[in-house]
Amino acid sequence: MKAITDDSIENLTALLKDLQVQYQKARAQNLKLNMARGKPAAAQLNLSNELLNKLEDYTLADGTDARNYGILEGIPECRQLFGELLGLNPEQMIIGGSSSLNLMFDTISFLCLFGTGGCEPWLYHRYHGAPVKFLCPVPGYDRHFTVCEELGIEMISIPLKEDGPDMDIVMDLVRTDASIKGIWCVPLHSNPQGVCYSDKVVEQLASMETAADDFRIFWDNAYGVHHIYEDVPLKDILKECAEAGHPERAYYFFSTSKISFPGAGIALIASGPENIKELKKHMSAQTIGHDKLNQLRHVQFFRTPENIRNHMKKLAEELKPKFDMVLGKLEEALSGTGLAAWSSPKGGYFISLDTLPGCAKRTVELAKTAGVTLTGAGATYPYGKDPNDSNIRIAPTYPAIEELEKAMDVFSICVKIAGIEKLLEK
Ligand SMILES: Cc1ncc(COP(=O)(O)O)c(C=O)c1O
């Protein structure tokens, strides 16, 4: 097929006219569809409904009454369960509240206020006019960027390649610039592209030389067991860091937000022994303990890592038809046109699409006017600024499949209109 990008002005003009007719027809349907946020659909949530009636017993294996105060680090049976699931040492883990993003924000706040390992608090540098910087593989998760913005941390975009961040750039920057204190990583089925980090990238992150002694990896394994098309293995970052002589380099985050209930599941942080000691000290000033009853409820519901993996298979069965639908629609409408390229994730929650440069904002605006809400263009980049104005995150999980079908038809028309308008502009 000849790419639309190679068409003559006459053909493009005729095509645009035709697409505008299709667009007006779509608008007339008064649609109200939303592909903006990665929320689970009710059918997925229903699979965890038994949790609502759980708590057969509230006495822990060691006899502790889970209804009362205490056990800051989380109940042993819960740390054991998720330790086994993720290959983490339960002794180097804290089960926090019900949001891993909350744990990320708190951890960075602690680093800003108190520092780590005897290094100056990060705020100290800021008060002395020196910046504190983070590396942000892009496109990435908007809320990571918001955490940095809120805390006054400067962000440096790093291209995310097929197997992880561009490590030549990362290694070069962290080796020479002591103001770079951290990097965000979503190592499996990244948000939004579905990138999975290779063993080599994990090893390089763990062993690279850093100018800052308090350089930290924020390892947000939010989609660590969320495989849809293929189970993808991931090298153990904490073990790699320890073996490379940097046992405190990484903070590992995980939650059951997209396993049980978002915002009402359980969240954890794991790290080196000294980091965990520090975190417990700071946390003990914040709270006497997190919600042990919810932790126990999750243990009684899931019981074994095997059961969690089976539960994830059921969730994947719910998601697969939706991902198939979106990918099929993109293929049907846009393949070979030259107007867009998109990711084919093996799991996770998103599909990432790149329009022609300068067309993402226009596409999102056209879709919005036709009743299809997408994640804002630019959201996948620090400061909400996509330098190419081309990346759009598609979140297929929440709408019903019939709605998704309609939304994708409208979306494809919008991608084409925006692309052809841009070609004609030139
Ligand atoms: C990469 C990533 N990390 C963290 C979160 C939020 O996790 P939580 O609900 O545990 O705060 C999300 C939610 O979309 C996410 O995509």
Would you mind describing this structure in some detail?
This protein has about 425 residues and is α/β, with parallel strands linked by helices. Helices cover about 45% and strands about 15% of the residues. It contains 14 helices and 13 strands. The chain has an 8-stranded mixed sheet, sandwiched between helices. Helix 3 packs across helix 12, helix 8 packs across helix 9 and helix 12 crosses helix 14. The protein is globular. The model has no long low-confidence stretch (mean pLDDT about 95). Bound molecules: pyridoxal-5'-phosphate. Pyridoxal-5'-phosphate (PLP) binds next to helix 4. The site of pyridoxal-5'-phosphate (PLP) has 13 residues, from helix 4.
What's a concise summary of this model?
With 426 residues, the chain is α/β, with parallel strands linked by helices. It has helices spanning 9-28, 42-46, 76-86, 100-114, 122-127, 142-150, 167-176, 199-207, 237-243, 273-286, 292-302, 305-334, 360-369, 401-425, and strands spanning 33-35, 93-95, 133-138, 154-161, 164-165, 180-185, 216-220, 250-255, 267-270, 340-342, 351-355, 372-374, 391-394. The chain is built from 14 helices and 13 strands.
Please tell me the overall pLDDT: 97
N-to-C SSE string, H for helix and E for strand: HEHHEHHEHEEHEHEHEEHHHEEHEEH
- Poorly predicted runs are none
- What's the total number of strands? 13
Query: What structural category do the secondary elements indicate?
Result: alpha/beta
Q: What small molecules does the structure contain?
A: pyridoxal-5'-phosphate
Radius of gyration: 23 Å
* Alpha plus pi helix count: 14
Shape: globular
β-strand percent reads 5-15%
- Physical arrangement of strands within the biggest beta sheet: 2-9-8-7-6-3-4-5
Biggest sheet record: 8 strands, mixed
The helix content, as a percent range, equals: 40-55%
N- and C-termini, Cα separation: 23 Å
Give the assembly state of these chains.
single chain
